[in-house]
């Protein structure tokens, strides 16, 4: 299971990478493996201010549909449009080409409240 040390994690299995006040968000390797083959993502929250733990979109896999939760308060400033034609990138490269949204973080220090890689490993029993 790939759990990069430089990222932060949520209990809902999103990962976050902060660069200044912009955070890139996706789902973890664990989440994509649990979901199975991802066939569609619906993200209609571009330019929306969303609070932590609110739904910012959904991911549809062959087996199920799951909500995607905002890791911290912020504004969705970019959506990975390449996932429209290539949703399987979330399975193939969840921490790279499979990123889902970028958010302008309201308070960058909120990232510190998220789990580090060791805490996330404990959560998933890895």
Secondary structure topology:
Blueprint: E1 8-9, E2 14-19, E3 22-27, H1 29-35, E4 38-42, E5 49-50, E6 55-61, E7 65-69, E8 74-79, H2 89-92, E9 101-105, H3 117-124
Antiparallel strand pairs: 1-2, 2-3, 3-9, 4-6, 5-8, 6-7, 8-9
Brief characterization of the structure:
With 126 residues, the chain is an alpha+beta fold. 15% of the residues lie in helices and 35% in strands. It has a single domain, classed as RNA polymerase II/Efflux pump adaptor protein, barrel-sandwich hybrid domain (OB fold (Dihydrolipoamide Acetyltransferase, E2P)).
Protein architecture, described:
This protein is of the alpha+beta class and 126 residues long. It has one domain (8-106): OB fold (Dihydrolipoamide Acetyltransferase, E2P), CATH 2.40.50.100. Helices cover 15% and strands 35% of the residues. It has three helices and nine strands; from the N terminus they run βββαβββββαβα. The chain has a six-stranded antiparallel sheet with strand order 1-2-3-9-8-5. The longest helix is centred in the C-terminal third of the chain and has 8 residues, at 117-124. The protein is globular and about 35 Å long. The N and C termini lie close together (8 Å). The mean pLDDT is 96.
| Gap between N and C termini | 8 Å
Number of helices: 3
Question: Which residues form runs of ≥5 with pLDDT under 50?
Answer: none
Radius of gyration: 13 Å
Mean model confidence by pLDDT:
96
Regarding quaternary structure, what we see is: single chain
User: What proportion of the residues form beta strands (DSSP E)?
Assistant: 25-35%
What structural class do helix, strand and pairing data support? alpha+beta
Main beta-sheet annotation: 6 strands, antiparallel
* Morphology call: globular
């Amino acid at each position: 299971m790939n759990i990069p040390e430089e990222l932060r994690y949520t209990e809902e299995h999103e990962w976050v990478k902060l660069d200044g006040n912009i955070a890139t968000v996706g789902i973890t390797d664990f989440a994509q493996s649990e979901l199975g083959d991802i066939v569609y993502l619906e993200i209609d929250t571009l330019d929306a201010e969303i609070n932590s733990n609110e739904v910012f979109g959904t991911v549809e896999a062959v087996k199920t549909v799951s909500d995607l939760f905002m890791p911290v308060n912020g504004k969705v400033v970019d959506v990975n449009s390449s996932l429209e034609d290539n949703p399987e990138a979330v399975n193939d490269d969840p921490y790279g080409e499979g990123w889902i949204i970028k958010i302008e973080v309201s308070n960058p220090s909120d990232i510190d409240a998220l789990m580090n890689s060791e805490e996330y490993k404990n959560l998933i029993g890895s």
